[in-house]
Amino acid sequence: MTKKEKIIFKCRACGYQTLQWMGKCPECGEWDSFTAEKRDEKNRASNSLSQKRNKPVPIHSIEFKKEPRIFTGIEEFDRVLGGGIVEASLILIGGDPGIGKSTLMLQALSTLALSGRKALYISGEESIRQIKMRGKRLGAESGSMLVASETNLNSILTMIETEKPEVVVVDSIQTVYNPEIGSTPGSVTQIREASIRLMNTAKETGIPLFLVGHVTKGGAIAGPRIMEHMVDTVLYFEGDRNHIFRILRAVKNRFGSTNEIGVFEMKEKGLEQVSNPSALFLSERSINSPGSVVIASMEGTRPILLEIQGLASNSGPGTPRRTVLGLDPNRVALIAAVMEKRLGINLAQTDIFMNVAGGVKVSEPAADLGIAVALVSSFLDRAVPEGIIVFGEIGLTGEIRATSHADLRIKEAEKMGFSRCIIPGNSLKQANNIKKIKINGISSLKEIMGLYK
């Protein structure tokens, strides 16, 4: 008699296992996320790990030679990666469907191929003819760029071993499966197996690999979170696919900063990098409009000027609305409370709407002063004088605290033609050598009321 196969149920969202089907996952709270899988001890994902036994060595005895990074030729992309692609790295890039992930990967491999590097693009969602159609539109037709349509993990690994490319893209990781494992592609087991084996391949061969991943409705990369822990870098493509702006942001990077962003514009022939994001985000700003103010934000080492829009209107019956896009809602609520206490502005029965134009997300405290100025401007229905830019952090007592890189922010404002900059008083010493723009330092939130007289 053959032994009865054991069946387990796994949650597609978090990987939680149980011996019986459940409607709701007790670990992550997802509904109808359990799938049945055969429990085969011979083909567990852990068996795919290298069987070589490595002996620990003293760290000072390890030979180290600084190897140059691989430049893709797309400066915005290289900036987010930390200065280029590191050899033997595993990079995960996620984003909403249609946002431009595959387009960016195809363009990056095309520029690498044109520079003489052998690149391999493996798609599990498109045929090679479909890739050719898209590549022709993007101008990606170099002879050094190889394409394949494959979903079998073993075939993909054999292909990499045979062709020995210098860069590989797998689009997408959710379509890759190991036929020896009895579960469907996209399941927790398959994604974990594929990620581990591709990671081992990257480390053993020195070939950098890009994995394209879908995202869930909540915005997280589909599949178990363990996939994000295994890779070296996690990139997210942000933006509305119905708009032309795209923002590439690093949320994890072992070889560089996670504060850098890359700005792209979607055009007919693919993604075009934006070398001057400040001009792009301010191009449609209306002058002398109440509730609008320009701030200087730092994204990594780059200063970017952004427009913050605020709308304060009388609330109807019930609880006032608080709708915030591109900013931290808790931060906006905190600043509104400080304004009500320190400025005497009654916002308790006022609907508050905040937005950062262009679809950018701002998380640094230096945007606090811009939030306050925009709300006061809308509440009083008085426009901020033309040519003014602001930045600064607001404390609970209404004080304006110093921010970092004040000189870089002011120089960017000067370059964009602004005539006056309102900054924290303690940051004035960082702007001693700047003479072409008028700089006003303030120490209290009450001082911004002078803008509207």
Give a short synopsis of this structure.
With 453 residues, this protein is α/β, with parallel strands linked by helices. The chain has helices spanning 75-81, 101-114, 128-138, 153-163, 188-205, 226-230, 277-281, 329-342, 368-380, 406-415, and strands at 7-11, 17-18, 34-38, 90-95, 119-123, 145-149, 167-171, 209-213, 233-238, 245-253, 261-267, 270-273, 292-299, 302-314, 322-325, 350-356, 388-390, 393-394, 400-401, 420-424, 438-442.
Describe the structure.
With 453 residues, this protein is of the alpha/beta class. It folds into 3 domains: 7-39; 72-275, P-loop containing nucleotide triphosphate hydrolases (Rossmann fold); 280-452, Ribosomal Protein S5, domain 2 (2-Layer Sandwich). Helices cover 24% and strands 25% of the residues. The protein has a 9-stranded mixed sheet, with helices on both faces. Strands 15-16-14-13-17-20-21 form a 7-stranded mixed sheet. Strands 2-1-3 form a 3-stranded antiparallel sheet, with no helix packed on it. Strand 15, helix 8 (329-342) and strand 16 (350-356) form a beta-alpha-beta unit. Helix 8 packs across helix 9. The protein is globular, with a radius of gyration of 26 Å. The model is unreliable at 41-50 (pLDDT under 50).
